[in-house]
Amino acid sequence: MIPRYSRPEMVAIWSPETKFRIWFEIEAHACDALAELGVIPKEAAKTIWDKGGKAVFDVARIDEIEAVTKHDVIAFLTHLAEIVGPDARFVHQGMTSSDVLDTTLNIQLVRACDILLAGLDRVLAALKARAFEHKDTVRIGRSHGIHAEPTTMGLTLARFYAEMDRNRARLVAARAEIATGAISGAVGTFANIDPRVEEHVCAALGLVPEPVSTQVIPRDRHAMFFAILGVIASSIENVAIEIRHMQRTEVLEAEEYFSPGQKGSSAMPHKRNPVLTENLTGLARLVRMSVVPAMENVALWHERDISHSSVERAIGPDTTVTLDFALHRLAGVIEKLVVYPENMEKNLNKFRGLVHSQRVLLALTQAGVSREDSYRLVQRNAMKVWEEGKDFLEELLADQEVRAALSEEQIREKFDLGYHTKHVDTIFKRVFGEA
Amino acid sequence: MIPRYSRPEMVAIWSPETKFRIWFEIEAHACDALAELGVIPKEAAKTIWDKGGKAVFDVARIDEIEAVTKHDVIAFLTHLAEIVGPDARFVHQGMTSSDVLDTTLNIQLVRACDILLAGLDRVLAALKARAFEHKDTVRIGRSHGIHAEPTTMGLTLARFYAEMDRNRARLVAARAEIATGAISGAVGTFANIDPRVEEHVCAALGLVPEPVSTQVIPRDRHAMFFAILGVIASSIENVAIEIRHMQRTEVLEAEEYFSPGQKGSSAMPHKRNPVLTENLTGLARLVRMSVVPAMENVALWHERDISHSSVERAIGPDTTVTLDFALHRLAGVIEKLVVYPENMEKNLNKFRGLVHSQRVLLALTQAGVSREDSYRLVQRNAMKVWEEGKDFLEELLADQEVRAALSEEQIREKFDLGYHTKHVDTIFKRVFGEA
Amino acid sequence: MIPRYSRPEMVAIWSPETKFRIWFEIEAHACDALAELGVIPKEAAKTIWDKGGKAVFDVARIDEIEAVTKHDVIAFLTHLAEIVGPDARFVHQGMTSSDVLDTTLNIQLVRACDILLAGLDRVLAALKARAFEHKDTVRIGRSHGIHAEPTTMGLTLARFYAEMDRNRARLVAARAEIATGAISGAVGTFANIDPRVEEHVCAALGLVPEPVSTQVIPRDRHAMFFAILGVIASSIENVAIEIRHMQRTEVLEAEEYFSPGQKGSSAMPHKRNPVLTENLTGLARLVRMSVVPAMENVALWHERDISHSSVERAIGPDTTVTLDFALHRLAGVIEKLVVYPENMEKNLNKFRGLVHSQRVLLALTQAGVSREDSYRLVQRNAMKVWEEGKDFLEELLADQEVRAALSEEQIREKFDLGYHTKHVDTIFKRVFGEA
Amino acid sequence: MIPRYSRPEMVAIWSPETKFRIWFEIEAHACDALAELGVIPKEAAKTIWDKGGKAVFDVARIDEIEAVTKHDVIAFLTHLAEIVGPDARFVHQGMTSSDVLDTTLNIQLVRACDILLAGLDRVLAALKARAFEHKDTVRIGRSHGIHAEPTTMGLTLARFYAEMDRNRARLVAARAEIATGAISGAVGTFANIDPRVEEHVCAALGLVPEPVSTQVIPRDRHAMFFAILGVIASSIENVAIEIRHMQRTEVLEAEEYFSPGQKGSSAMPHKRNPVLTENLTGLARLVRMSVVPAMENVALWHERDISHSSVERAIGPDTTVTLDFALHRLAGVIEKLVVYPENMEKNLNKFRGLVHSQRVLLALTQAGVSREDSYRLVQRNAMKVWEEGKDFLEELLADQEVRAALSEEQIREKFDLGYHTKHVDTIFKRVFGEA
Fold this sequence. Notes:
- The structure is a homotetramer.
- Helices cover 65% and strands 5% of the residues of chain A.
- By secondary structure, chain A is mainly α.
- Chains in contact: A-B, A-C, A-D, B-C, B-D, C-D.
- Chains A, B, C, D: Pfam families: ADSL_C (PF10397), Lyase_1 (PF00206).
């Protein structure tokens, strides 16, 4: 977790304070259930809530105890006993540390998910607004980095919207994957605790009881979770790469917003670097790197080994914090992206009409000219444009053989950009439900 | 794709014959739509189906043409023209190669998914049958590879079932991710083809039209697809590792089925190697290795670059074929797994009752003995078992201080395995809906 | 291994024929050593070489036997006995299958390395030739995709040369990593075979005896090997990305060679796609994906488990074949790369002299103008270029405040490109030892 | 970087204080060279060393300035000017931020390497000491987790030694890979700074000048560096897995040291979990996860983009700190590993002599019995051991058909463990140069 790539809201989820608060809530809810089942006194459960509920857990004190006990949950329970008093002996009855730890991790991941969803929504809102703003801003479409046929900036943004919208659905699925809890004991048999405790605690905390756990919640869930984060990161990279390309000196169809006061901008006014999207490219790599270790975590030995734990201590916070930061950075970039329609037009016309050569070719064949002849006709005029800098339309209009097949109007019609944008509304309706 | 790790059914999906058949169907369905829209003659569309529908495409001939044209789709269309005759000129009107290639890839992946689902169903059926068979077969649960508390073999299998059942849901989601088609032209604007063609072709082939495509279908879909395959592979590894552990010489709670005639088994009857599950461990790594490149494929330049193509030529077949093989190998292993309940019992009793020490500890504290004293009492008897090979139950019964707190009946009750299995039915009901 | 991305020379290494030939040689050399040690008759060793040395092993026959024995080495030995006769009983004495299999794999990897080294040498030769050709071809250097300061095409190529030269050294190290053999028996103790047999076989086959093996050669060697291949692939991607950028329509400083007859080139003469370097980008992902599974292969259980085997059956051939193909494809691209110095010059001058603004700024401060004032002076002239399309040099010459600090000659001198290329020779000497 | 998995010595390398100190040294050494070349006054260079050399840079102050300038190097230089006074204007002349940043990163990585080498040396020393201690401690070798032939604990440790020794050589190579510096300006042309400055600074700081750089030092070096760290981590996992297996309840051939006071040990004396080696397994995954992003960092756009930076901000510290911690944890585990030779013997004899069946088989064939008959003889006696719990030696001695081929002495000789350990010294000499 790198401070400069972190937002406090997400960082807070992973603080010791948050963790101990969740630990307390799990324990206290479990006490409620145990009290209801008659295992512990109802008064004790009430006292635990009363005293612990308003307590501020002293992280330094807990660390101090852990230095002696070498066990984090016991250290916390000891500290809790200092706060709650004798009734603390009813806490954690029949439970295993992992019951608390694993359920807590999932609660943290669920909360992280909710923050990520908000970030994704901000990205979606920005993409939608800018897509509609530039729905009809024509630019050249490129395959292989080479000019192909016209498209619009709105379509570019609409496809990123659609992709991010899929990511939203995936993230919702990821949330469901890890929104489970387990209070099932040392090997998951509920030997020492009634399954109804698990049900109560989970319900109280917005979780579903894990149908079958061992000492731990199965890690295929977490593998799926981090894999989905990796896909989202890859989509962020996708948008970032597009913007970096657009901002290239020779292309300059858009730029990241550059505040007037930003150092160094005016002596070399062309030197506005797409550092935010470059940064997003790197952050995507960081998010993605957690995918494989999360998958390697799945095959734990028997009812659990603890190899997953160190991995999750790192990728739990790091990956969610980084992705959260990246989503908001991306949203900011899109919200403020400076688009240059005039440069888009200039780029589009770079080859004086050659972009329409395919349409002319098609028109010739449809007018009955053979494929070979059509190709030859287009080619000889295209070459004049390419080699001598002529204008494609003018050359075609002046080519008698072409004119024998197509009228001036027919030829001019092939140079109409509207031809390429006629289905933009259809696509917008598909993506946004409106156009 | 390694022959020895391949099943013909999945391999067939990736054959040239299958590919060309799908190409034909896409083209022919597109002709239907184009005819319906009046772009091409209805007779032509009919002729194409009539002649192409029953044709066997000659892969060698197509390769021969491609050697000249250096373009696979053109080579196919040329061969198709050889079969269909003059009406072939109406084929592929307004379409781009990628329309055919990308839609075909998704159809292949969808079919692969269906085969994988069948494989997963076989795994699920095997796990369920064996889980019920061994629902009450007690074995020791292990955390950190060390004996913890008793569980049952049925629970082990039930949790693998639950995990694989989650994988089934994920695979269904993966199928939906890539069940889209696109016939949208060079940069996805439908400039040269009506969106209704795409709709018709997709409907005919069981796909959903891609809401917004460029020259290609967006690759976040494929990234998600392969990520899910990676999770499933990790679950396979999880089961494989469990079985490999069970088959260890010192544990021997289960073995892969070893046919009587299998070489080398009798001179060293203990030398039955879990080679199938070891192999599955390796295959899991192979499936998983496609996850990252599939994610790296997402950020294509502008409306497409072709960097994804070579990656998919490899991981498309290799990963689906390997996972398919692994699922069936796993199913076979589970179906025939030789379980040794008597060894499970022997292992469980390895420490002459020490496995019950936790329960005794709890009983003492519940009987009013302080935590410290309870611990001391359990410890001194446990040590006699550990160091002198005594029996834990007998030592406890003979310990006056223990007996002051607990009656013989109360102590004996702590050694009842039923205590650990009392909620097995509850868990089975959660997992299977029945117990 | 995808045929279209394969070269026969590398593919041949992985054929069954090559494999069986190596198996034979290991066995025959071992017989020599065993004969020398008096374990088997010298005549037998001679017969084995005489008959086996000239034999063509019948792959189909071996497969047939394996279908029965379910063991590849036994199948081969059985076939060998069919060829050699009764003396075949002296073959493989005291050896373990893995002795043959692991030593063979390393021989194949060593041979693959030698082919890769030749490929890398071709790349190096191409880079060097083109670097010297374009040593002084000035082009704009870019950071963040944005124009920075001038550099030369030769420097670009020289740095790729230096990078590939490092890769050559790494590949030599990789070769040494896996140039070991082991004939050490079931668990590596030489219980049934004298270590001198291993020494003889290794010496005969150009290998070093593995100092300590188990049943297998330790897999950290192979992990290192594939990691190095992954680095080389990443460097290939590095060059490929540079060329793809250079070929972008708006940049067009270089192009992959496009043969005159190549389809589709003339109707859209700008539509020359950098498909080879795009393909290399994808191939780099494929090579790289073997790195992690090769590392996961290191931790085998005890004296070996067989999980690594399936992984290596795939990545052994696939990764070496793909990288070999990529190296030759890259060499071809560089050898024939069409460079456009005139476009480089055009791009360099895109901002009418602004590229020199940094030097002017420095000159002003060195002439005693304060940092703030220097910046202001440069900025106000730069802005006229940026916003009004003026020429930077002319504006500076006309700016009285600038002229108060710098003479016309001093200003003009700042626009000399030679300033930027003055150390090119120094760098070339560092890289190539000559300039 | 997770505090509990961090050692202060390595953490210190990545502190802001260390970073600013290195920045200062690079700048000050550059000033020396610039002064020597007559570019700046010698007095200024002296003043900079005098004042800056003893200064404590105020991290908070630098952060404060950076909050305004949004540029870390400028913030530092501003703070340096506060310390040095007017002569500070001679600092950083002709240099680019990346000159400082990239050279600093490499210095940090070199220092990290030196610490890692010390850690590796500790591991090697521990492995060597324990290997000699247990050179002749016989244990069963296992392939596939199944008993195979005897080996010794010393051989197990010797092979880990050999593997770690290879890793040491790799780490030395990794150090050389990144022990370069670059002071070459905005695009690496030395336009604004003499190459001799680079040479001086590098020599002063123990680096080699990068032969050809762009704005940055090429990232194939860092990719190789992290790949090597990934291999070392995989070797750590290899050792960890072996120990985890040895500590399994059913095997118990060794245990991680468990201090007498460690909680929970005595009530369940068997419940000593190999948590350190499990942790190492997880840490290996964390180290390994940096390999792929480091490779993805290689292909920067043109003379640099900044995508690598965020990746390195994370993996630079995290990966070196984690690996360093892991090496020392591993060394501690090995140093204190509790080995149970008596359990090794017990496990070895688990099948009452069956482990020697292969030798008996061989002896029979060597005594002239046909392969088939030998096999049958061994098998029928082995089966009595396996199914009826008989002793293999006794059965063989009582088998008339066996005795017809082999004398009692010959049979007994096959049960001599010395047969398996006779080459241990040879192997030790290979590995350690002594035995």
